[in-house]
Amino acid sequence: MTMLSLASILAESARRYPDKTAVVDGDLRVPYARLWREARGYAAALRELGVRPGDPVALLAPNTVDFPRAYYGALALGAVIVPVHLLLTADEAAYVLRDSGARVLICHTSQLAMGAAAGASAGVPVATVGPAAGSADGSTVDVARLEDLAAGLEPVPSFESRQAEDPAVILYTSGTTGVPKGAVLTNLNLVMNAVVNTFDANDVRPDDIVLGCLPLFHSFGQTVSMNGAFRIGATLVMLPRFSGPAAIEVMLRENVNVFQGVPTMYVALAEAAAGYERLPRLRLCVSGGASLPLAVLERFNAAFDTTIFEGYGLSETSPTATTNQPHFGTRAGTVGHPVWGVEVEIARAEVDESVELLPVGELGEIVIRGHNVFAGYLGRPEETERAIVDGWFRSGDLGTKDEQGFITIVDRKKDMIIRGGFNVYPREVEEVLARYPGIVQVAVIGVPDATHGEEIWAVAVADKDTSVTEDEVIAWSRERLGRHKYPRQVRFVDELPVGPSHKVLKRELRRTFGG
User: Fold this and answer.
1) pLDDT digit string (tens) for 29-63?
2) Do the bridges between strand 453-462 and strand 439-449 make them parallel or antiparallel, or are there none, so unpaired?
3) What distance in Å separates the CA atoms of residue 514 and residue 415, rounded to the nearest whole number?
4) Quick one: which of 39, 65, 376, 379 has the fewest CB in 10 Å?
5) Is residue 399 within 8 Å of 363, Cβ to Cβ?
6) Nearest C-alpha neighbor of 79 from the set 106, 108, 98
7) What percent of the chain shows pLDDT beyond 90?
8) What is the C-alpha to C-alpha distance for residues 249 and 349, in angstroms, rounded to an integer?
9) pTM of the model
């Protein structure tokens, strides 16, 4: 059997770069050796609370140094991490705790009200990290505090030995098609994804300074930002709450040269750039989580004088499956090539019981196999069998692969609009509308229609300094899109709804405008 632990990522960098800064959290600078020592102290505290190797440990924390302390502490004990989204309700969080079988919930004190309610509902004990918690009357909240427990214990000497195929992290999907499912990711999945993201795909270097603004409870932030930075020995600068100006200011202050974000973040940075005489010098920019409109890419590249490497992946693929890579060159509008050790092909979307690969250039469902594909959905063997067919993970995304091997995402199967019997892919319409002068951000959805089955609506955020009307946008798009593709309705909003990972929530737009 092969032994491998995700905890080794931090342990090895603590051995190689003991005095180097691992995390910047406001005015706090934590070297690698100290971070690993504190994580091992948390491991000892969790063991005192009854956690054993293989036990699920839920973690509810923002982007502060407490997140990696607790994350690697639980991993050092051989436990399985269950990250909890910060924007869940107490009932939703309680579902995650019950479904995962969490032994304990580690809760940052800033989230204690929701965490305590979720823990009580699920019958799961709560332990806190972060500043000491108090109630409204100033009294101390009666929950275990990992820092206090760890202070009276010797840190565990090293991390528990784990098998490569043992679970390391359980990531809960957003649940857009039903109740959330726990995607089980192994030590091998996550160690390999951190390695290929740094050494092979994105060329992150030990002297890089990475902005950690992606939520660490999400697969993108967790693997690409945190695990990737720690694997190579880079410095991770924490930003708990993202905004364009806040990100630019912290990047300037800390000399950040690597930025990883989702498209909404790039929109915000491009908008904020006009207010600064000097902008960060970014050596490497990576986009993922959703398709990046070409217009956004061009505006950002013009403002920051850099190139964005767009990639693609899902929680079930650890997450990175493909990305534009220096070795193959970049091609705007694509998500590049598969990362090392991973195969990505296009299969016939209409066939569910088997995977039928399609020739180059044909549109179909993106299928993936390799070291990054998850072990399955926790406690849901039938759904796992539907997701992994003939050894391939069926992504649910539609795309193409060209003769040079570049993958292009067309849309999600579930987001495709069928108007009058014709398939319309929202991303194609969004790419056109994003170029309209005065439109900052746009999302296209299908709304039920008695005549056509579905009608095409655009929901847009307009530049506050310009005057944009619905009729003008419709007329403009009608000239540039096929008759079955242009939006018949345009609605303007102050901002698009986004989830914890800053991806646009189209289900919220459909709920608002779809009746």
Assistant:
1) 999 999 999 999 999 999 999 999 999 999 999 99
2) antiparallel
3) 13
4) 379
5) yes
6) 106
7) 74
8) 45
9) 0.86
Please write down the long-range contacts of 467-472, taking CB distance under 8 Å and 24 or more positions apart: 467/438, 468/436, 468/438, 468/439, 468/492
Q: How far is CA 197 from CA 17, 51, 152, 465, in A?
A: 20, 31, 38, 40
Please report, in angstroms and rounded to a whole number, the separation of the first and last CA atoms in the chain: 55
Instruction: Name the residue with tokens 């528990």.
Output: 160
Cα separation, 231 vs 503, whole angstroms: 26
Measured CA to CA, the distance from residue 307 to residue 282 in angstroms comes to: 9
What residue type is assigned to position 506 of the chain? K
Strand partners, 412: 397
| Tokens of residue 309, six digits | 């490497």
Please provide the DSSP assignment of 240-263 as one string: SS--HHHHHHHHHHHT--EEEE-H
* Per-residue burial over 340-368, b = 16 or more CB atoms within 10 Å of its CB, e = otherwise: eebebbbbbbeeeeebeebeeeebbbbbb
Q: For residues 346 and 204, give the distance between their C-alpha atoms in angstroms, rounded to a whole number.
A: 29
DSSP string across 394-456: EEEEEEEE-TT--EEEEEEGGG-EEETTEEE-HHHHHHHHTTSTTEEEEEEEEEEETTTEEEE
